[in-house]
């Protein structure tokens, strides 16, 4: 199979849309291609999955039973603060233990 693909260009020279509110122009595409060809030298790769540590030491999983109202309140707080329910519970426990 020997297919030929033509480069798509906008006749008006405008942008191809936006990403995070920023216009995607021919220059943007060229910069992204150059970055990919260079192996993404400035990219920071974040590990996938749950963290194995919390703080400086390996973490353990602890099961806590909560009524639906408390679970809803923890999840709502986590959404407002753009964090996880685990983070909210750890901070609450830290504050309680410090008092």
Automatic annotation (TrEMBL):
- What name has this protein been given in UniProt? Ribbon-helix-helix protein CopG domain-containing protein
Where is the Ribbon-helix-helix protein CopG domain positioned along the sequence? 61-98
> Pfam families this protein is in?
RHH_1
What the entry lists under CDD domains is as follows: RHH_CopG_NikR-like
Organism phylogeny: Bacteria, Bacillati, Actinomycetota, Actinomycetes, Micrococcales
Q: Which organism is it from?
A: Dermacoccus profundi
For the region Disordered, give the residue spans: 1-21
**What is the residue range of the signal peptide feature?**
none
